[in-house]
Amino acid sequence: MLSPTKDNSYWLSADSDCVAPAGLWGQVRSSGPTAYAVGHILTRGGDVGWSADSQLPTSDCTLDFPSLLAFNANRKAMNSALRFFFQSATGPASLFLIRLPVGLIFFTQGILKFTDPKMGVERFTRIGFSHPGFTAHFVGTFEIICGALVLLGLWTRVAALPLLIVISTAIATTKLPELARPTQGFWFMVSDARTDFAMFCSLVFLILTGAGAWSLDARQKIPSDAEAR
Fold it and tell me: What is the pTM of this model?
């Protein structure tokens, strides 16, 4: 039995079924004077049933539908985001020509942060990081792993996100300060940042379009958000 109360919640009999919006999921707490007993609202084609995680102190419980609908909306948004980042790649094979330089540049730069102090610890010390050794190796690890994933076309959208953070940080800490230096300025920065800018745009492009047909992502069978609907 389902009936509204003055506080915009609902009474739901624990041992019966009722009808509610399809897709609703949430927690139900007992309205009795004892401690809350938590269970779940289960939906199958609009039919809602009670599945208790513990013994209810009374036969009735309250269900706050606005809160549950908001929770359900957040869960759908999360599922939609996961489908977007892990969906099968459907773009043209020519996207490999974008992944190739992006993956190789980050992969090799990551290795250099471990093997060449001038590209690793010394460079991060010069930039001004408080723990240059740790930071260089931390960034290098992400560049190696994510660069390799971009090359292979595996979880490409997800792998591109850390690299986008890395290149954005590089632009903010090494390129933008050049604008304020009397001996450098705008045109010096534009020239010096050309590779960083190309990497930034390429990563955004890969996040939006995916890895393309020549990728391991293309072999996955995860539907896009539009296909799932």
Answer: 0.65
pLDDT for 66-107, tens place per residue? 555 555 566 667 777 777 777 777 889 999 999 999 999 999
Domain residue limits, the chain = 2-86, 93-228
Residue 11 contacts by C-beta under 8 Å, 6 or more apart in sequence? 1, 2, 3, 5, 31, 60, 61, 62, 63
- DSSP-derived letter for residue 176 is G
Q: Give me the sheet containing 47-52, strands edge to edge.
A: 2-4, 10-13, 60-63, 26-30, 38-44, 47-52, 18-19
Q: How are the residues of the chain apportioned to helix, strand and coil, as percentages rounded to the nearest 5? A: 55, 15, 30
Q: Which residues of the chain have pLDDT under 70?
A: 1-76, 222-229
